[in-house]
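Kindly inspect the following:
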Amino acid sequence: MSNIKWIKLSTAMFDDEKIKLIEKLPEADTILIIWIKLLSQAGRTNANGYIYLNENVPYTEEMLATIFDRSLNTVRLALKTLREFGMIHIDDDSFIRISNWEKHQNVEGMDRVRKLNAERNKRYRERKKQQLLENKTNDVSVTSRDGTEEELERNKEQDIEIEQEQDKDVAQIIQFWDKNGFGVNNIHAKKQLLLWLDDSSFKDPSEVILKALNIACENDARRLKYTEGILRNWENESLLSVEEIDNNHKNRNKQAVSQIDYDPNRDRF
């Protein structure tokens, strides 16, 4: 969800001696597919070749097996092989990094995307802060000599309210997920979905995420991939609020009705 839509793959990648050696191994095709998936995941993470759930949580082998839809033993074999060939590095904290990432990818472009994401998240936090300020009904007057202490105290209170608001959003999403059959014990999927709160273009991410979850329930598709697919489609179509999504849906329904060729004289029974 870094807004990186593509990564670079060399047309000569299968001429590389490491790839040629891997092709002679058992499970060669699966190992190479996992290699491509790792490259893609590194692009999504957009952290100079690192792959992780978030900056504090590395992907476990079990997580990767779920994400890549491969058996745990296959993932372990692939990681072991790629590590031995020096194609990935796994540090002491279990964080995976693609070796020589900067040599093969447009890191300058990815860095620009990362900065744009940071700016967007900053604007989102500022909007939240402004909303809280506007909703305040009691404005405490400043009576001290220079107002510094009172101003600092108000800022602290506002920051606490923002954190509480964000915690409320997280709680609502997790509660909906757990109560509607998405999988109480699927911690990884819940964490992945919550990343949309801070890393999306939506005006009110929590409302949009809950709407996507509702649609997934209506279609009996209680899965992370399905829900994220809905969210990506809305982002790609620049539908960034529940109101815009609902209006788009209504317009599509109207267009569908208007396209029905019905003649009351011709088609009466």
